[in-house]
Amino acid sequence: MLIEEAISMKKSKLVYIFMVAIMIAALTGCTLPGFSTPTPFTFPTPDKTMTALFEPTQAVPATSAADDPGSGTEGDQETATPEAVPTNTQEADQTEEVPDTALPPVATATKAPVSYVGPAVRSGPSVIAEKRTSPIVIDGSVAEWTATWQKVINYVVFGAGNWTNKDDCSGIIKAAWDEDYLYLNVKVKDDKYVQEGVAEKIYLGDSIEIVFDRYVSGDYYLQAMTGDDYQIGISPGRYGIETCYIVNGKLSVGCSPEPPQAYMWAPKASAGVKTEIKIGAVEGDSWYQVEFKIPWSLLGVADPKAGDHYGFAISISDNDVDDKLLQQSMVSNVSTRFYNNPTSWGDLYLK
Question: Is there a contact between 314 and 153 (Cβ–Cβ < 8 Å)?
Fold first, then answer.
């Protein structure tokens, strides 16, 4: 019993000590009402007079005469008097005169006109026209002709895939001239004659076509047709040419197919059927022959003379399909011929 009481008293004493320790710790960590914050200790301000007595004295670095560009010998140095900087006397609100910054006038470039002038003779193949002393009767024959056959017309310039050989379509030509007309006679090899077109559609069938440049040198390098370039088509006859020919400009008696016809496509201002072109045609076994004369006046030539050169090409269109308007192929005497590009044509020479 005594032992238990002693133990109990010992525990109570330990609890009391523990509680006192907690209270002391709380009082030292917090500022409680009634307790003031301790004043911090301030070190006294040093006495500068005393500090100066004990600070070490530093010597000033020496400057040599070489380091001073304005010095002479030692002891002769003079103190430089600074020069007064001039004061800008211009008033602050004065407006500065703006220089004239206008650009000088620019010269307008003048585009020089393009010139197509060149030689008077085309470099392509030349057809020679012989001078006539008497007119030729247009009847489709060659009885009155003294000129020789020349210039095989067999260069395929259109529809090469439809052209078989020279028997399918090819030709030869005679040419002559006098003061009034250009005469042409073309003999064509053709295994089948088909022509059902009229007027501007005659090229969609068996036919002859010429292109003519009246003034070569004036636009020698121009790759386009102008007012002095002509494109003319000749139909030997619609639906056949067996007995269809012209005698002295008149349709022969008993002509069952429709008569030959000429059409001008260019110049456009003069386009149309040209009855002043006289045509005669005859037909044989797998060939036909077309003779025609064109007035020089229709070509704008006023005074033809020996030695003249003109741009020229002659071509043959072919169609072998009945009852259909079709241009299957075309052959020419000039391999480069393109209908609306005079630079691709050849030459016509008046002998």
Answer: yes
Q: 222-227: long-range contacts (C-beta < 8 A, 24 or more apart)?
A: 222/116, 222/342, 222/343, 223/341, 223/342, 223/343, 224/340, 224/341, 224/342, 225/266, 225/267, 225/340, 225/341, 225/342, 227/267, 227/269
For residue 286, tell me if it sits in a domain.
yes
Start-to-end CA distance of the chain, whole Å, equals 170
CATH code assigned at 264: 2.60.40.1190
DSSP, res 185: E
CA-CA distance, 197 to 206, in Å (whole number)?
9
Q: Is residue 99 domain-resident?
A: no
Cβ proximity of 172 and 216 under 8 Å: no
Q: How far is it, in rounded angstroms, from Cα 44 to Cα 185?
A: 140
**Rounded CA gap, 172 and 28, in Å?**
138
The per-residue b/e assignment along 317-336, b for 16 or more CB within 10 angstroms, e otherwise, is bbbbeeeebbbbbbbbbbeb
HSE toward the beta carbon, residue 287, CA cutoff 13 A: 12
Residues in the chain: 351
Give a yes or no: residue 342 inside a domain.
Answer: yes
| Apex 116 CA angle, 112 and 121, nearest 5 | 155
CA 76 – CA 157 distance, rounded (Å):
110
- Domain with 339, as residue range(s), is 126-350
Structure tokens at 350: 């008046």
Question: pLDDT (tens digit, 9 = 90+) per residue, 181-209?
Answer: 999 999 999 999 999 999 999 999 999 99
Residue 6 covered by a domain:
no
What global pTM score does this model have? 0.67
Q: How far apart are CA 330 and CA 31, in angstroms?
A: 123
Classify 208 as helix, strand or coil: strand
Say which range, 6-15, 154-163, 182-191, 284-293, has the weakest mean pLDDT.
Answer: 6-15
How many domains does the structure of the chain reveal? 1
Q: How many CB atoms lie within 10 A of CB 227?
A: 14
